[in-house]
């Protein structure tokens, strides 16, 4: 089920892993593009419903659905797969292969590649019994970035030409390396059971861990530095906010002192010329006006404030919604999340689902409006 290709360059890593090194096809390197919205809200097709469906037996008759209109290559594999096997499957990213590789690099994961051959006799049983089993779905979603392609079309055909599978179903675990090369850490050909697939993938993860630990250690060090910088920026922001509040307090106190000083400069003769009752009323009215003015200013400012509503989705499935001012910065969202105590003090970052955009330390000082989150946005909290 697993094989090596003698025609490819073979290297042995420091812990004894043998992996093939293959070069990216020029068409894949030049085909890096952004996934455009074609009536699908999320980059992952089937999100928000596939977990609620029961696993169907292999002999369960599927209704004849009309062929979906898919104008982009990125959606062709998932459209074909879900038409025949339903929506309960691993999270296959509907994107170009290079984009999946980049996401895996950012998340310190490997890419699980599945080349789908619809006409192969082993394909239906493998999809129903192995790829759509709950244990395989949970394991792949937790540990890999999954990407699939049709073996006879588009980038799936290009990857099949590069990896040269001898049989189908074909799966591979790949990782990026320097230059235009790709490290094939493991490949599986032919039908395998869910238990066998999980065992092979688990062993591959354990073996390749030390081979990539050096690069990942550098990445972790960078993450720690970014986290420290974010904390320092938050501290500086809070200090600046406290200074602004103190300035406002002193300004309001100075205004009240000026009003009191002006009232005390009224001579006794002027007081006698005025009706005492009217004067007292005037003082009461004047005093009331002086006290009400800041409140009216605050009220008028409140009307001018543009509210930004942010919905935050946690890995546990819990959702929180909070309102901010459009002039608040991205760091205000992080402080709100920290006040909830739901992350357990762990490191995290905020990501928009589609199009995927990361809001981390580099955007901490950007206002919500400038960051494109106004008037409302939905963010996913991603644990690091």
Model description:
The strands form 2 sheets. The protein has a 6-stranded mixed beta sheet with strand order 1-2-6-5-3-4, with helices on both faces. A 5-stranded mixed beta sheet has the order 8-7-11-9-10, with helices on one face. It has helices at 26-29, 76-85, 97-106, 123-131, 134-143, 154-163, 194-211, 213-264, 268-273, 276-304, 330-340; strands spanning 9-12, 18-23, 110-116, 144-150, 170-176, 181-189, 307-313, 319-325, 348-352, 357-359, 376-383. It is of the alpha+beta class. The protein is built from 11 helices and 11 strands. The protein has 2 domains: 9-57 and 67-211, Glutaredoxin (3-Layer(aba) Sandwich); 307-383, Ubiquitin-like (UB roll) (Roll).
Please summarize what this structure is.
This protein has 384 residues and is an alpha+beta fold.
Q: Provide the structure class.
A: alpha+beta
Per DSSP E runs of 2 or more residues, the count of β-strands stands at 11
Element string (H = helix, E = strand) = EEHHHEHHEHEEHHHHEEHEEE
Percent in helix: 40-55%
Number of domains: 2
Shape: elongated
Residue runs with pLDDT of under 50 for 5 or more positions: 1-18, 31-58, 65-71, 277-302
Mean pLDDT: 75
**Biggest sheet statistics:** 6 strands, mixed
Radius of gyration: 31 Å
Judging by the overall fold, what is the CATH architecture of the largest domain? 3-Layer(aba) Sandwich
What is the CA–CA distance across the termini? Answer: 34 Å
Strands in their spatial order, largest beta sheet: 1-2-6-5-3-4
CATH H-tier superfamily of the largest domain: Glutaredoxin
CATH class of the largest domain: Alpha Beta
- Name the assembly state: single chain
Indicate the proportion of strand residues: 15-25%
Q: What's the number of helices?
A: 11
CATH topology tier name of the largest domain:
Glutaredoxin
């Amino acid at each position: 089920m697993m094989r090596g290709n003698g025609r490819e360059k073979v290297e042995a890593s420091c812990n004894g892993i043998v992996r093939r090194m293959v070069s990216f096809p020029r068409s894949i390197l030049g085909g890096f593009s952004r996934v455009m919205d074609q009536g699908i809200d999320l980059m992952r097709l089937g999100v928000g419903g596939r977990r609620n469906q029961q696993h169907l037996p292999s002999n369960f008759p599927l209704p004849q659905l009309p062929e979906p209109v898919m104008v982009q290559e990125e959606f062709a594999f998932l459209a074909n797969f879900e038409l025949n096997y339903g929506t309960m499957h691993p999270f296959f990213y509907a994107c170009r292969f290079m984009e999946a590789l980049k996401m895996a690099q950012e998340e310190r994961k490997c890419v699980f590649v599945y080349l789908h051959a619809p006409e192969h006799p082993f394909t239906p049983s493998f999809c129903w019994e192995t790829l759509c089993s709950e244990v395989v779905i949970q394991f792949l979603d937790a540990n890999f970035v999954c990407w699939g392609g049709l073996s006879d079309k588009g980038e799936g055909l290009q990857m099949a030409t590069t990896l040269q599978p001898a049989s189908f179903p074909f799966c591979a675990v790949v990782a990026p390396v320097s230059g235009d090369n790709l490290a094939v850490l493991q490949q599986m050909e032919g039908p395998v059971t869910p238990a066998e697939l999980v065992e092979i993938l688990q062993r591959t993860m354990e073996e390749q861990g030390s081979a990539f630990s050096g690069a990942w250690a550098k990445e972790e060090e960078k993450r720690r530095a970014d986290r420290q910088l974010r904390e320092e920026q938050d501290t500086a922001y809070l200090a600046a906010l406290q200074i602004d509040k103190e300035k406002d307090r002193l300004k309001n106190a100075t205004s009240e002192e000026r009003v009191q000083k002006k009232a005390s400069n009224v001579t006794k003769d002027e007081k006698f010329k005025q009706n005492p009752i009217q004067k007292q009323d005037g003082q009461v009215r004047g005093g009331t006006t002086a006290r009400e003015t800041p409140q009216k200013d605050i009220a008028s400012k409140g009307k001018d404030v543009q509210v930004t509503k942010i919905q935050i989705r946690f890995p546990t499935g819990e959702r929180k919604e909070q309102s901010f001012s459009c002039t608040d910065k991205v760091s205000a969202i992080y402080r709100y999340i920290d006040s909830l105590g739901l992350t357990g003090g762990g490191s995290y970052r905020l990501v928009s689902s589609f199009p995927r955009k990361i809001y981390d330390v580099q955007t901490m000082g950007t206002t919500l409006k400038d960051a494109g989150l106004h008037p409302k946005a939905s963010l996913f909290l991603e644990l690091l």
